[in-house]
Design a protein that fits this description.
3 helices; mainly beta
């Protein structure tokens, strides 16, 4: 991926991927983290029961578009099933996490704003505890929340090629 002119085109199947046994796999389209100053964008592959991160809220909006499969959105203490082509908008301050659902992997496009000063909070909410997506205790510290987990490894998820090859169009 060349960014000499500032713009670039890259295929999601050719970007670097990181895989985590607990939190799924993701690609980031930035050459280096933080290259996009206004928003972050990535794809996430989640297996059934696999959260994309720990239940949290932040001082920035986030949006999710399920491209393939199903995911359970845990949001402000509630559960909402999302299917392919469902879009979720989460304003700043919304408690949330996605958990893979259904009978196979899901593929989700995730976009989030990047405030100058990021503020996160990880509440230990019952809805997240039930799905294995809660921090051990309430904390504003990502380091503390994720301390029990290993770092992701540079690795493509095995189901990626099938998910990207499925193609298709949105339902009418």
């Amino acid at each position: 991926m060349s960014t000499e002119q500032g713009w670039f085109v890259v295929n999601a199947g050719e970007t670097p991927w990181r895989t985590h046994d607990r939190f799924g796999a993701s690609c980031r389209f930035e050459a280096e983290p933080g290259d996009f100053p206004d928003y972050g964008i990535n794809l996430r592959v989640l297996r059934p029961g696999q959260p994309n991160c720990l239940y949290h809220r932040e001082n920035a909006q986030e949006d999710f578009l399920v491209l393939r499969g199903e995911a359970l959105l845990l949001v402000d203490g509630e559960e909402r099933l999302l299917r392919a082509w469902d879009f979720a908008h989460l304003p700043e301050g919304t408690d949330h996490v996605l958990v893979g659902a259904g009978d196979g992997p899901c593929l989700v496009l995730m976009v989030g704003a990047r405030p100058a000063e990021e503020e996160l909070f990880y509440p230990r909410a019952e809805v997240a505890v039930r799905h294995g997506a809660a921090a051990e205790e309430d904390t504003p510290s990502a380091e503390q929340a994720y301390a029990p987990y290993e770092r992701p490894r540079d690795e493509r998820p095995p189901e990626l090629d099938g998910l990207l090859r499925q193609g298709g169009t949105a339902p009418s």
